[in-house]
Amino acid sequence: MSEHIAHVAVFEDCCRLGLHSGRLNKAFRTVLERHWDFARFGSTSRSGDRHSIAILKYARERWDKRDEGDYLEEKLAFLIGWRCHQAADRRFKPVYRELDPEYYKTQKPDSESGAPTDVRILHDVVVYREVYGSGEWPPFPKGLLDDRLDSMHGARALDFEAAFDAVGGVWQRTLQAQLPKTFAGDFESSTRLIPRRYQRFYVDVQRYSEMFRNADPDQVFRYIIQPNFYDPKDGLISLARDLQRKRATKVAFDPAYEAAAGQSQYTQSLKMGLRYLFAASDFFDGKISEPETRKLFDLDKKHTEGGTFTQ
Amino acid sequence: MTRREALQLAAAALAAPSFAAQKAPWSGYVTSAFAVDDVRRLIVLDPKADAAVRTALTTHPAAAKLGCALTTTASNWRPKPEADAALTDPVEQLAVAAGAMVNSAALEILGKQSYDALALDAALLSARHPSPAKLTRTEYLEFLKAVDIRCQIELHTLDPEESDIHAWLAGTARWYRDGQNYLGELAAALAAGAGSPLFDASDPLFRLSERVRRAEPVTKADLQAAKPSSAYGRALRHALDQVSTG
């Protein structure tokens, strides 16, 4: 599930549920209200474990004196996204290895040298359908997984490949500008460093299109049904959908949170993400110590060893 | 100026920091990306083209477009043998340099007059569709945002620069805001549909690039015969000449 759509969904559901629970502090509520989109972007970023504690300390020390130019709110927002990314990774990296062991014997996962396993893409496709109603609910639009965005109005006026090549080129160029060391030297140095350190586009979205339209029943059984990937009846999922779609709900948070450990894998990832958010909020407020926070963040475990969702 | 003086000047330019911070607005960046892509297509028809440069441009499109961020360029520049050759692909390195040269040469021509860079971005983007319909800003923006999301899906996960995480986070927050603003401005310019005096969709150089893109039958003679009819076409011709022979 560690591709893109599912990471975003875990972030959005955890934050919806966290806000609803009343257990997130005022600073967290503030940044989620003002910087939800940037926090969501943070949920697609790796490396959060290394910086979580440091950024929380940095933010809480400066919170009362923050101003617009210091990007303190945005940093805290990104941190929230980062913790949710770690929850999805820690729940699902072990799952991939259980479900597709052959892939992990031969490929280098999570690197640009290896195309992602089908499990991860199928997870994204299922989350697009279930959480986002196949584009009914933002931020993912209808037609996103169609071949060349063919069903979108824009396809009648813009050529997809040309738009992707141009916008994607601008995307990579401007994003890399955030790596100042790449450009610190002379022409020779920059031309040498730039190719080493930029965000390559290497996940073939066409694979999404094919699974969205014509999923392999064997993969659906092995990756989704049999392991109980997503159950809309789970309490946390049901509550998150009600909150997302602004419906009245009959689901109480606390019992749903308690029951999550024995439910679907997606619900377990929400439980883990909520534990991380509650710990981050409590540490920011000085309610828990750094060692306790590190433990609650599962920082003593590798991603492939999983994380805690049973407590 | 003597040749020696010219070489000294060129060497001084190359030794200078090669990059100016990419600041909003991003207007003009789509034009630069298109110029690189158009030259990548036209160079396959250019008999003068240096084989190494042609290979670099045609096989490493992303690296070539990254070169647009560089502010210095060099004629006859080639990668030097590196002690850390295992880390540096000389073909990809040459693609970055060639992309920088293409962008610099194109901007040299386009910059001879003041122009609305955003309108040119929109005109070039619109012209890639064989028969573009007229849409609302909302419809354009929805499509551009979907392209933006597909970019995010294709890169898998964002990889931060961790040597100074605070600088990276602040810069990325600005980048995110600027990028979203740019998509909105580009959608508005597309909906306005005003075109640009610097570009004519019937420009023979542009049309030839599109024919290469669609794998239509084209020959080297077609490139020789193509006379640009717009500033963008002249920019492509100049950039092609510079990168093919320089």
User: What percent of the residues of chain B sit in helical stretches (DSSP H or I)?
Assistant: 55-70%
How many helices of chain B in DSSP terms?
A: 11
Overall radius of gyration of chain B: 19 Å
The assigned structural class of chain A equals mainly alpha
Sum up the overall morphology of chain B in one term.
globular
Mean pLDDT value of chain B: 90
Order of helices and strands of chain A: HHHHHHHHHHHHHH
- Class from helix and strand fractions of chain B: mainly alpha
Strand content of chain A: under 5%
Radius of gyration of chain A: 20 Å
Q: How many helical stretches of chain A?
A: 14
Spell the H/E element sequence of chain B.
HHHHHHHHHHH
Overall morphology of chain A:
globular
In percent, how helical is the residue content of chain A? Answer: 55-70%
Largest interface: A-B, 86 and 97 residues
What's the multimeric state? heterodimer
Please report the distance between the alpha carbons of the first and last residues of chain B.
19 Å
Strand content of chain B: under 5%
Could you give the topology of this structure?
The complex is a heterodimer of chains A (311) and B (246).
Chain A: H1 5-21, H2 26-42, H3 48-62, H4 72-99, H5 101-106, H6 118-130, H7 160-176, H8 187-193, H9 205-213, H10 217-225, H11 235-244, H12 253-259, H13 265-284, H14 290-296
Chain B: H1 3-15, H2 29-42, H3 51-59, H4 61-66, H5 90-110, H6 117-126, H7 137-154, H8 165-192, H9 204-213, H10 220-225, H11 231-245
Overview of the molecule:
The complex is a heterodimer of chains A (311) and B (246). Chain A has 14 helices and no strands. Chain A has helices at 5-21, 26-42, 48-62, 72-99, 101-106, 118-130, 160-176, 187-193, 205-213, 217-225, 235-244, 253-259, 265-284, 290-296. The longest helix of chain A is centred in the first third of the chain and has 28 residues, at 72-99. The two termini of chain A are 22 Å apart. By secondary structure, chain B is mostly helical. In chain B, helix 2 packs across helix 6 (117-126), helix 2 (29-42) packs across helix 9 (204-213) and helix 2 packs across helix 11 (231-245). Helices cover 61% and strands 0% of the residues of chain B. Chain B contains eleven helices and no strands. Chain B has helices spanning 3-15, 29-42, 51-59, 61-66, 90-110, 117-126, 137-154, 165-192, 204-213, 220-225, 231-245.
